């Protein structure tokens, strides 16, 4: 894993552990023996550490965390590097991150390919750079820069790193050759002033000021996360304590993080990010064996808020879009809005004015469907009504070329029921964007019974091209996101009927880490949207909904949201919803006594006695109900693996990444507890049938020891 090559008087330690040269145990052993060997070898006068392949080490091996640690630890390897009697030069290329950058900071010199990047992304894994990174970096950069680099986890490009003093020289030619030349030039020079452990933090006197400012910033930016705070405490130690004591403090803070639930969740999330887009169908077709079609043009049908934002997703990566709306006034409005949104992106420096211009040049608005005959992909984004969508798909099927894919942005409707309207069900799929579609990262791609593997490959590929995190799910009512989230919404409203207020429920879930509580979310999208869907469904089933309706098809029903609609309280757009706003479209939500009155009078009219609902009950009723549904989603094969569900929640529903996602959270709570509480609530609320415990959950909970999350589907689903 580490090749030892001597060229003249230079020993080269070449790390060879693809794909990212992670500092696994064998690499650490190789580096340590290499340093020792070079120091014993009389012919060697300087040592170069370099990575083979695409990069210098990009960090410790994340898969080793959570397992019993194996010696030598990186710190011991690093200390041997620093103590070397012969100069050690780290030659960086690619991404020198985390433990990799620490190896470089133990070295006496650091040179780097001018295109390389460095950084300490540990905080994103709920950790800190635990091999003295937090006490060495401030010695080079000063405290403010070190605090920013370490608490943000951001990559720094080589010229910037040179400016901060992290690097000694940038290289534009052959890195190894240049490293050897550089090594020769420093032979015999004193090393003590190159050993960071011997150098003081130059602005140590100002540490308290920097600490206070940075702490306030991380508490605001990374609310609820412990790693950024520990990073700052350790950096403060670098300035206040003698080096050895600072190193001891860093190790203690690192250990605290390594064993934390947050780090476990963030490390899980790191791998879930990479695993979720790797799709596989029950037929065996997968990302490995299926080629996508190349999409060169797109039509978006429906130029409402959603359709317009979807169009932006494509044009901003250079894919031409035909935006179709039946009414010219609406179309012109949409085109104007798109121009304004892109103007906003220019102002925020997300795109240049030129890029805005180029994007708008490849957008064309039309009022006739006939114009889409030649596009490769259609994304339909009209009102959520099955009959309407079937009509549009039937027309599209006739108009579009045979190879075109016809996709729906439906958020709930069964793709199979839409596909039957066409003669090309293999080319019909769902592409469920989340509002606002040009901002939200998630794309829930949906396959139906007849969707072909190449259609799946194509929608997953185009999702990646437009910069989305794409997750594949099988069709069902609500797919994964809305199907599971419906339980959160239902329980939240039922708790209003029982004693809570919107702000109580939202506060508990926001303190848990959710980006927004369910009532603030509803106010954002508008209560009219849900009302229309409920009315549509009731009409389909021949049901009349009234304020007195308490059950629909035997299921508990709350008419509170309907009351809000009747009062014209649609949310932010009307300046009133579950909260009060200063004016329409204002963002700050204020609890509203009028809503308290509405809820109280609703309860009185239904004869419900209100009670205090404790925070733990709010968490359990909202999240455990969703988790139970998540297990059903797994057992039915709607989602292939728990990671897919968790990534959907993180990127689409604002679930805190440091809790992993609902399924990972369930694994941390313990499946026995989840199962027992689900059974308890099923007893308490038999008219909410979603509380019926999932078979998969029951089976997994019956094991005497917890079944690890990576075995949930493979072990039990096949036996169900
Ligand atoms: C209790 C006792 C304590 C004792 C003291 C201990 C002292 C601790 C000392 C040091 C601690 C150091 C902490 C760290 O270094 S944590 C790691 C920091 N580094 C990172 O977080 C980098 C993570 N990786 C990335 O950001 C990217 O992978 C990148 C390097 C930018 C490359 O990106 P890209 O080209 O897009 O490639 P992928 O992301 O798809 O990755 C390719 C595959 O490599 C796997 N991978 C990547 N990084 C790691 C890693 N650090 N460890 C293990 N595996 C890694 C990734 O999962 C991909 O694999 P696969 O294809 O199977 O999914």
Describe this protein's structure:
With 720 residues, the chain is an alpha/beta fold. It has four domains: 2-259, 2-enoyl-CoA Hydratase, Chain A, domain 1 (Alpha-Beta Complex), CATH 3.90.226; 298-475, Rossmann fold (3-Layer(aba) Sandwich); 515-606, N-(1-d-carboxylethyl)-l-norvaline Dehydrogenase, domain 2 (Orthogonal Bundle), CATH 1.10.1040; 615-717, N-(1-d-carboxylethyl)-l-norvaline Dehydrogenase, domain 2. 48% of the residues lie in helices and 11% in strands. The protein contains 29 helices and 19 strands. An eight-stranded mixed beta sheet has the order 12-11-10-13-14-15-16-17, sandwiched between helices. Strands 1-2-3-4-6-9 form a six-stranded mixed beta sheet, sandwiched between helices. It has a three-stranded mixed beta sheet with strand order 5-7-8. Helix 2 packs parallel to helix 3, helix 5 packs antiparallel against helix 9 (227-240) and helix 27 (671-684) packs across helix 28 (695-701). The radius of gyration is 29 Å and the shape is globular. The relative contact order is 0.06. The model has no long low-confidence stretch (mean pLDDT 96). The chain binds ligand L434P2JQ. Residues 19-20, 22, 58-63, 69, 73-75, 95, 97-99, 121-122, 125, 127, 129-131, 255, 258, 271, 274 line the site of ligand L434P2JQ.
